[in-house]
Amino acid sequence: MYAFDLVRPATLADAVAAMAHDEAQALGGGQTLIPSLKARLASPATLVSLTGIAEMVGVCRGDDGAVCIGGATTHAQVARDVAAHYPALAKLALGIGDPAVRNRGTIGGSVANNDPAACYPSAVLASGATIVTNTRHIAADDYFQGMFTTALEPGEIITEVRFPVPMQAAYIKFEQPASRFALTGVFVARYADGVRVAVTGAAEQGVFRWSDAEAALSAQFAASAIAGMAPDADGMITDLHGTAAYRAHLVGVLTRRAVEAA
Amino acid sequence: MPKDHGIGASIKRREDVRFLTGTGNYTDDINIRGQAHVYFLRSDVAHGRLNKVDTTAASAMPGVIRIFTGADFAGVGGLPCGWQVTDRFGVAMKEPGHPVLAQGKVRHVGDPIAAIVAETLEQARDAAEAIGLDIEELPAVVDMKAAIKDGSALVHDEIGSNLCYDWGFVEDNKAAVDAAIKGAAHVTTLELVNNRLIANPMEPRVAVGDYHRATDESTLYTTSQNPHVIRLLMGAFVLGIPEHKLRVVSPDVGGGFGTKIFHYAEEAFCTFAARKLNRPVKWTSSRSEAFMSDAHGRDHVTKIELALDADHNFVAIRTETYANMGAYLSTFAPSVPTWLHGTLMAGNYKTPHIYVNVKAVFTNTVPVDAYRGAGRPEATYQLERVIDKAARELGVDPIALRRQNFVREFPYQTPVAVVYDTGNYDATMDKLIEMADMAGFPARRAASEAKGRLRGLGVNCYIEACGIAPSNLVGQLGARAGLYESATVRVNATGGIVVMTGSHSHGQGHETAFPQVIAEMLGVDESLVEIVHGDTARGPMGMGTYGSRSLAVGGSAMVRAAEKVLNKAKKIAAHLMEASDQDIEIKDGRFHVAGTDKSVAWGDITLAAYVPHNYPLEDLEPGLEETAFYDPSNFTYPAGAYACEVELDPDTGRVTIERFAAADDFGNIINPMIVSGQVHGGIAQGIGQALLEGAVYDDNGQLLTGSYMDYAMPRATDVPFYSVDHSCVTPCTHNPLGVKGCGEAGAIGSPPAVINAVLDAMNSGGIKIDHIDMPVSPARVWAAIQTAKA
To answer: Max Cα separation, chain B?
Structure first.
């Protein structure tokens, strides 16, 4: 890796100030960024570590009942502390990577990176969560803007993600054999006002909502309501590990399984 | 009651104390005062003309000591190939040069172009980015069949073709084989791919070169399975350093699987640069470099035909294989698809007529060479797959078809040169049927089907030729080296024993198993015995570890040396007790005069040998140290039967291994626990090949599976709890321990069982399909289901 300065602020205010440096880069758990640095694919002048900021770590319930997770909270802590509040989300966190990844990687880092095969974006989008930053609140539907692309402005830091808790939910991940990322993953969440279905790993645009399934499941929350359905293969990823047609097919299968598991 | 020491005892591995507590001494742990670091600038194109390498700016960068390019190796030899195959027409294979650093052309992604030596690795990497490269990209040669058609780009312009050799085995039998196939009642034909693999030992390769100007001695520390072979190849053929001025040390090595047999450019470079710069030079491969510079394995495309008579007796086998050599000939590459593959095509069966054709092809990919099993998995896979296909076509039980054709009389002369000395294939099949609970399979299939899954059972046999090998035979087959092994047994004055063996241990457990043999022979406790290996300065010339040869060949050398020690010890004991050495016997760890109560302890004898005050100096030399070299008279032929049970999810295509049973005949067993562990690891790699692993290049010669993000290695959750057995024993008839070797069996025997099981599952669910290529990824299974439905 190239040489860089490391700043480890203890408060959000200091972190925001540090991010004003030229070529500053926020560092969460580093599960994507550090390998990129080691491969010399990135050359930030300053890394601003967010994991030492106490106000950005932990889980609580908001006045509206939402599960609020600090942006620098690790997957392992989410798996542990969210289990009683939002079991499907906790289970998703427990299925990310391996113990080493889960004890370093953070929800803010994952959501900011928006890897098209990451698990968290599907939960954020299916839950209609709110991304809270140091400057504003962003609705999930406005936040994800394509592969590795989000509504975040340069220097903007995810301080918290707020998840409305659904009546029923489940996440089913079908793992890519090598990376164990989602070859396709589907998060289904049922709320009083309808069902949301978010798909990760499958589409070139990154995480997306499968609206046909949402409509059918909102009318009847049963796997049979979407029997034989699959989204259009156009826009799905074709790579070494599966064709667009295979991924589209998997979305249908996994959505039905998620409904059954919810 | 199981034995607690000596031959046959499951003693826990003594080396694991250091391996499991982080106190091993690996090559990367070796840091020499004053050492510099080298970074290799590697080609990122598969094929190109190297017009210019401009190091001017880079050479001036901080910390840079010197930058070497191909031009610096003008007077230095290339990396040699250790095996010469002669083709169907009696002509020697094409053997293009393999420079240490690229000269004139780059030929695969990862081909080293320049070596930057600097004070730190990061400085070397910084300088690498400042090197100016002018590479004129050429069309990449990737597909083997296209590579040998007219008009293909040439990997090596000077040889005029991409064909390394076109080998026929046995060429004189071809006409008889063709006739037998023409007249056969039934011929089953199968085309398949044996997928390219990347070995991925846990420890990447490392090399540290050192040089002492005052004595003109070079030392190379390297992650090798055979340091003496590296000393010979590098010293004699590359750098011109005589062996007495060159020491090669391979300390703890974290897995080899074949890929650390070969002599690599980085080893030669570090040794060369240390002399040039009069400084130690160190290289540690990154994992990314390992993917594009460690020799790959397998990569065969094969068509096999099996002919049967009306009674289902095998009458002939004919194969045509394209074998990928990659861009250069790695050390033993030419032998893998020929002598380690063609000679095994008879398998466990009586087939009177066999003809094997292999076309070895150069491509713009990483060199391909031996990987656990080396040629024998490729032979086993095609044979056991085509037999299963024949059984399905004929509507007969695949086990019965195999049994009907088993070899039952030994020694058995195959039509492919080798002679099986012993075996009992019915015994391992009987054992397998019991272990795999085949009687319970229908109930398990019904249970799977009840939850919407398909279940399949796959069975195969295997035989391998290992304990390689007789030097006189391999010499006739093209080997440019002997394949004996050596051992020195050194007994110290106070009774401790050090065995210096040419076999290298990099996970095999020699440090535990070899003392068990000595303990059994000399009547001493294992704790008195230490095994030394991996250092050319400490032991006699040895040929190293591969081909499941350590115990069969290296262990035999140790036995021969220990026999000499024992004979001498008996003479000393006889002198001390004023008896005849013919009357000395070992009992309870003491040397007795038979039929009397007179005895001496081991320590009395060893002390007398080194303090010869009361000693037959007129008849015996003092001291107690003996060396032996052992060259076997034949290969050994481990064999067995494997069964795999899979469950398949037709909605996703995912295959899971539910049960796996392995019944092996390894001859006599020294340490059953270690043998089981070897089989477990081998099966894991076989399951990896069958379900997960596969190196993939695109049409431009870019390696798409260049990291663990895309190259799938088997993990604990991918493998079941194995049922393994090695109680069916037909001892090898020609080595002193009656052992056959167990290191490669699991990797050889398991892939066809997995694929046969997958196909059984699919066909049981009405998905009519003849074959599916490895790795059977979920996407590939699902696509096959869609094709079969259509």
So the answer is: 90
Range of the domain at A15: 1-49
Q: Which residue of A has its CA nearest to B655?
A: A177
Which residues have C-beta within 8 Å of that of residue B220, sequence separation ≥ 6? B207, B208, B209, B210, B230, B231, B234, B246, B247, B248, B249, B267, B270, B271
- Quick check: helix, strand or coil at residue B493? coil
For the B300-469+634-789 domain, the top CATH level (class) is: alpha beta
Spans of chain A below 50 pLDDT: none
In a domain, A120, yes or no: no
CB contact under 8 A, A178 and B704: no
Strand partners, B358: B167, B321
- The answer to whether residue B2 scores a pLDDT higher than 80 is no
| Residue-wise pLDDT tens digits, B206-262 | 999 999 999 999 999 999 999 999 999 999 999 999 999 999 999 999 999 999 999
pLDDT for the residue B589: 85
Question: Chain-wide mean pLDDT for chain B?
Answer: 96
pLDDT tens-digit map of B410-460: 999 999 999 999 999 999 999 999 999 999 999 999 999 999 999 999 999
Q: Which amino acid is at A207?
A: V
Query: Cβ–Cβ of A178/B778 closer than 8 Å?
Result: no
Question: What is the mean predicted confidence (pLDDT) over B129-150?
Answer: 98
Residue B1, pLDDT > 70, answer no
Give the strand pairing for B281-284 and A137-139. Answer: unpaired
Domain at A28, CATH number: 3.30.43.10
Substitution target from B44, B289, B652, B774 for chain A, most A beta carbons within 10 A: B652
Which CATH superfamily, name and number, covers B27-138+202-255+260-293?
A: Aldehyde oxidase/xanthine dehydrogenase, a/b hammerhead (3.90.1170.50)
Assess whether the previous peptide bond of B411 is cis (omega < 30° from 0).
yes
Q: Which residue of B has its CA nearest to A245?
A: B783
Query: Which residue from B129, B696, B782 is facing A246, i.e. has the nearest CB?
Result: B782
